[in-house]
Amino acid sequence: xxxxxxxxxxxxxxxxxxxxxxxxxxxxxxxxxxxxxxxxxxxxxxxxxxxxxxxxxxxxxxxxxxxxxxxxxxxxxxxxxxxxxxxxxxxxxxxxxxxxxxxxxxxxxxxxxxxxxxxxxxxxxxxxxxxxxxxxxxxxxxxxxxxxxxxxxxxxxxxxxxxxxxxxxxxxxxxxxxxxxxxxxxxxxxxxxxxxxxxxxxxxxxxxxxxxxxxxxxxxxxxxxxxxxxxxxxxxxxxxxxxxxxxxxxxxxxxxxxxxxxxxxxxxxxxxxxxxxxxxxxxxxxxxxxxxxxxxxxxxx
Amino acid sequence: xxxxxxxxxxxxxxxxxxxxxxxxxxxxxxxxxxxxxxxxxxxxxxxxxxxxxxxxxxxxxxxxxxxxxxxxxxxxxxxxxxxxxxxxxxxxxxxxxxxxxxxxxxxxxxxxxxxxxxxxxxxxxxxxxxxxxxxxxxxxxxxxxxxxxxxxxxxxxxxxxxxxxxxxxxxxxxxxxxxxxxxxxxxxxxxxxxxxxxxxxxxxxxxxxxxxxxxxxxxxxxxxxxxxxxxxxxxxxxxxxxxxxxxxxxxxxxxxxxxxxxxxxxxxxxxxxxxxxxxxxxxxxxxxxxxxxxxxxxxxxxxxxxxxxxxxxxxxxxxxxxxxxxxxxxxxxxx
Lengths: 301, 335
Description:
The complex is a heterodimer of chains A (301) and B (335).
Chain A: H1 22-31, H2 34-56, H3 95-131, H4 133-148, H5 151-159, H6 167-193, H7 197-204, H8 209-245, H9 258-265, H10 274-300
Chain B: H1 2-29, H2 33-39, H3 45-55, H4 61-73, H5 89-124, H6 129-143, H7 146-160, H8 183-189, H9 193-230, H10 233-240, H11 245-282, H12 288-298, H13 301-329
Helix pairs in contact in B: 1-13, 5-6, 5-9, 5-11, 5-13, 6-9, 7-9, 7-11, 8-9, 9-11, 10-11, 11-12, 11-13, 12-13
């Protein structure tokens, strides 16, 4: 399962050199991995666009500059024209500016949802893995129940609990779904370490239990968690888009976000597919970038 | 084996019990409480009071929960307030279930029929063009939102080319006899070939879109498992014994590699159910998923509650069956 990508042999270490640390040698191998490079390039471009968006965008993304060219009766939206290379959206706003600024909100959704999911999972997984016994049993049965509900259904069930939908409720719904995934993952590697030599040694030396967990077990369990985090960044963007598509996105679209733009575009997709293709293309590219990074890390780390 | 089975079933019952508590709590914490949730905001004061009395909202919480269970157990799953207004949720579920089962089965069949042979070939010709294309394709597949793929298929093959129908399960004006509720099967059983053909044509695009999820996973797992098995000692031994390559591939490689693939198919049930909601929505395919998608938009909590529970139970049941059959094949797992 982990062997999706071919693995090169570890570069031989010349006699007399100090062998490189694990992190350094992993990085050396990563640097030459085409999948990692492709993923890193995509994500770097995405980050640059997100940071520079306000200066790159030619127009105000909320201003209905081309409203005169919108006709709902004749099903017309502004076509591409000088100054508006992608044309306008169904409300006459500049599509290019919305795409550029949308990158920021999409990044926010991905990062916040992942961080919240990771944080919750870290707490639950560490508790279960470190304390084992009945705490582990209770927490893991809770995780079982959450994992029994298909992820999208769980996310929408959480989404409808909020009276007022906003971007933050979308983020929260996507994040909560990831908590059991992270918790299960961390718990597994923590439990395996309880009997590992370095933990037994630390215990024999009389290191405090809390310090053993935080300094010895947790850092050594983070490898698979980092891989999963990278993959969840992609999942979060896609799930947020799916929530928007089902009508549970943020109702206010003055601040653009790709998932929301794609969700709104479905109403006019038969006549104006470009409104869906641009945000969908962007989402697919960024999600692919995170997936490539995650897979490259999984195979090499 | 029996002890293992009993323990797994016990775990399942525990999960289902916890799910029912969770769902009960969910229904109570919805905006406006259960009465507004079930009746909507525009209900009259009398109907609200009547429902509150029927639901026993004046009773203590544990009593309410037991009543909720009792009603559910006796088949009273509430009345739809939006999806099919006024109809009992149970009948909506029964009427739409065959559609979703038909769609999901078609998707799994497509994914298995394409994923296992391609994954096997990719592993045998590791590093070749099929292998590279498959690995890249399965990575891209993960990044494409399933509802967008559904849109794309619909736009190209139904709207632009007009080869296949855009929506629904059956063409308007076609009068087909219903036997089981599975439209393709009905057409075959009643020998109404045009109806079977029509239903199958409506199934193609949604099934293709939905199949993309399990296909990418089955391809990758098959490829990885075959690669693992090819490196095993017993395969080398088989070659050393002078067995023919065909026998080794069939008896040793494929058979051992398929075990993880079977588990994977079970684990895909959840993703398939999520995907069915999105795909059915795009193609206006009258299944349970569409009811759920509309239910979320219209806040039809009676329908949502039942469908979510049904989906979760399907998921845990499928995985129970997979685990049990797995333990039956491989005794080491009965711990």
